[in-house]
Specification:
The protein is α+β, with helices and mostly antiparallel strands. The chain contains 3 helices and 5 strands.
Length: 167
């Protein structure tokens, strides 16, 4: 990271300041051959909402560098409303880990089901497309501190895997 004013650390922010929530109706065009919503469609929405959090937090462009621990717990069905809740857990230099939880709601019955989770890592970029510092996290609650510590462990694992894979 070059040393210019744009790359200097920005004011700390709490996870709540950058969180995002998105609600999307699932249509037949979103279905796979089994009749459920295609996993790739859900991944698209996960990446989109995580990107909103990353850009809100970094106040800059941010790009996806990894998506891991993606868990499809239960299917999402055509006609369901997919609700995605995203929050930032961990920041290190330009990297940010965003946690996304997915919930499907049958709006006729009102039944809500947790359908998936994912961790998405973004890198903040400056105007020249180079990595830039993201603001540190202001950890206000025990949950914030616990999620930060867990995110740090996951980041170390990702880096270890990258090194092992020669990426």
């Amino acid at each position: 990271m070059q040393n210019n004013p744009e790359n200097l650390p920005k004011k700390e922010k709490s996870p709540d300041e950058s969180s995002a929530h998105v609600i999307v109706r699932m249509f037949p065009s979103d279905a796979n051959p089994a009749g459920n919503v295609f996993g790739g469609e859900i991944l698209k929405h996960i990446d989109m909402v995580a990107g909103i959090v990353a850009q809100r937090h970094s106040q800059s462009n941010a790009v996806t560098v990894s998506m891991d621990s993606v868990n499809f717990i239960k299917p999402v069905f055509v006609g369901n409303v997919l609700k995605l809740n995203a929050r930032i857990n961990y920041v290190h230099n330009s990297s940010m880990e965003i946690e996304v939880k997915a919930e499907a709601e049958d709006i006729v019955t009102g039944i809500k089901t947790i359908t998936g989770t994912a961790f998405v890592t973004f890198v903040a970029l400056d105007k020249n497309g180079k990595p830039t510092h993201a603001p540190k996290l202001l950890l206000k609650t025990d949950e914030d501190r616990a999620k930060f510590a867990e995110g740090k462990i996951r980041m170390k694992e990702r880096l270890k895997h990258r090194k092992k894979s020669n990426i």
